[in-house]
Amino acid sequence: MRDEEFLAFVAERRGHLVRTAVLLTAGDRHLAEDLTQTTLTQLYVRWAAFRAARNPDAYVRRCLVNALIDEKRRPWHREQVTEEIPDSVSSFMPFEDADPDVRTEALYAGLRELPPRMRAVLVLRYFHDLNVEETAEALSCSGGTVKSQAARALTKLRRGMSARLSPTPLRPNGAFRA
Hints:
The chain is mainly α. 67% of the residues lie in helices and 0% in strands. It holds the Pfam family Sigma70_r4.
């Protein structure tokens, strides 16, 4: 019975987990696949706890975020990139006029610059549309921490994307200049 339930869950939810992991890893699809696999392995082992969880979706998201944080804590897993970074867009464009693929890569690059916890706050709040309390519960922190982390992360993300996409720089507070 457990195996059938787990297989049905994987068939239904794996794609969604991978998409969330891609955002959490700022576009690193290989790491996202690894995190998803780690999460599913942990979920299989703890299937009874998952089934008993008050909010199973939050349980899975928390497992995924924990897998990311654990991965970043392992110094032996860190790799040194040896290849050069590919050429970026030659001319900057405003966000709304930018090619969707370019915007996506700018988003991933901006997310990559954020610490994993800030990234997790943004993904849970704005991709999963969780409110502050749900996000705080998923990350085992206070609502105030979620709010401050989200504000700081959005400012950093805006700056990073602006530098990549917009000819108009941001003000120091993260707002666009007119």
